[in-house]
Design brief:
The chain is mainly α. The protein has 16 helices and 4 strands.
């Protein structure tokens, strides 16, 4: 009998140990996979660049607000970002896994913002099954809290005027005004998002806070500044394509195209090619930098959040100017006054010219990423490889931003003023985010 008792006790102890579930581990790669999936679906659904920037930003903020409660390095955005109030308080004693709750909130908002929810649910369901099978109790507790935070962010999101802008009037084409933007070939699409300046910014005081200087006065006099910029677009295009499409400038133009509206005509059939938006390209660069630095989940989410907010407000600021100046594109004027057979290297996107959206967004994103990862950060940009383009190597984020900006002139879709003023406009926006919104507590202490 005495020999049996120790055996029974040992059996009970072993049984209780085997019943313990391991904790669910969520890492930065899980977050990259989720963000990549959202990007792929946005390409499929053909979201405009401004709308895509909104889709990136809100899920990141939701996840970040959870992590900021438990990571002593980070500061909540509540009270710093426009109209954001504190999310429900996390109860760590209840067994909530903060990283798990953060990525669940991220996914829930992402799914609410895209059209093809079924495509996203394939990934979501597979992750839910993996996590639930690892530790069902931890998963359910964390999911409940993550969705509670998601609902809080959705309520805040619902008041940013996006829904109201869906029913506002289209941009009016007026061909009597020769300086005013007109739809361009081959699809002759309406001007997209003419009311995007009515979207609530994340940290800008208003869409017009960094209202740029107006473009050179419109004039078709050959000695005017405007006409000289028009002629420059035409001359550069001819020069860099003189020996075919193999020049460095043409490669740069194509690498930074990022136009989700490119239409291809074959016979009587017109279809769209799949491309990422400018914001998605910089989100991809954020992933590249985070991986190179082996950033953990929290630091990766921080980088995505800060960069995506800068991109979102950059689009609001840029679109405010686009539909203020309503400037005509080079293609329209060159075909009418210089060369009726000329075509830009890149297909002209469907909205007014000034300022250059990619320039503004690149200036803002480059400023934020430089602050996070440092200047002279060498990286290989493979963001465009899935879309048939080679990699490019950059010595810094700012150099990449400068190249993205000048690519618009090489591509024949922007004048010089839109590029140079645009990248400066973006850098002002990025700098404002750094000065106004304190996300890291060490930076807060140093100030």
């Amino acid at each position: 009998m005495n020999k049996i008792i120790p055996f029974i006790l040992l059996s009970i102890l072993f049984s209780s140990c085997t019943q313990e579930k391991e904790n669910i581990k969520v890492d930065s790669e899980d977050l990259h996979v989720v963000v990549d999936k959202v990007t792929q679906i946005m390409i499929h659904d053909i979201f405009s660049p401004p709308v895509a920037s909104r889709i990136f930003a809100y899920p990141n903020v939701a996840g970040y607000e959870i992590i900021a409660q438990v990571n002593p390095e980070y500061q909540s955005l509540a009270g710093q970002v426009n109209e954001l109030t504190p999310v429900p308080v996390i109860d760590t004693a209840s067994g909530v896994n903060p990283k798990l709750a953060a990525i669940i909130a991220h996914m829930d908002i992402s799914k609410a913002l895209i059209f093809s929810e079924d495509k996203f649910e394939v990934l979501q369901d597979s992750l839910y099954e993996k996590w639930s099978s690892t530790n069902k109790e931890e998963f359910e507790i964390s999911k409940t809290y993550g969705l509670k935070v998601s609902e809080h962010i959705k309520e805040w999101m619902s008041k940013d005027n996006y829904s109201q802008t869906r029913t506002m009037p289209k941009f009016t084409v007026n061909t009597d005004d020769t300086s005013r933007w007109q739809p361009t070939p081959p699809a002759y699409m309406d001007g997209i998002e003419p009311h995007w300046n009515k979207i609530r910014p994340f940290f800008l005081d208003s869409a017009a806070q960094y209202k740029p200087l107006p473009p050179p006065p419109f004039s078709m006099e050959k000695d005017s500044d405007f006409y000289k910029e028009l002629q420059e677009v035409y001359d550069i295009s001819n020069e860099i394509t003189a020996n075919g499409d193999d020049s460095e400038e043409v490669e740069i133009a194509k690498f930074w195209d990022c136009n989700p509206y490119v239409s291809v005509t074959r016979g009587h059939l017109m279809f769209a090619t799949k491309k990422i938006t400018p914001g998605a390209h910089w989100i991809g660069i954020t992933k590249i930098a985070s991986r190179k630095m082996n950033s953990d989940f929290d630091d990766t989410l921080f980088a995505y959040t800060k960069t995506s907010m800068a991109i979102a407000d950059a689009f609001i600021s840029c679109w405010d100017e686009k539909y203020r100046s309503k400037l005509i594109r080079p293609e329209t004027l060159i075909n009418a006054h210089i060369d009726d057979s000329w075509k830009p290297i890149l297909q002209t996107p469907p909205f007014p010219e000034y300022t250059s959206g990619h320039s503004v967004v690149s200036g803002a994103a480059g400023t934020i990423l430089t602050d996070i990862f440092g200047d002279n950060f060498n990286f290989v940009d493979d963001t465009e490889v899935p879309y048939g383009l080679p990699t490019r190597t950059f010595k810094s984020f700012n150099k990449a931003a400068d190249e993205a900006a000048i690519s618009r002139m090489y591509g024949g879709i922007h004048y010089r003023a839109a590029v140079e003023v645009g990248v400066g406009q973006g850098r002002k926006i990025g700098t404002l985010l750094l000065d106004k919104v304190q996300m890291r507590k060490d930076k807060l202490a140093s100030n």
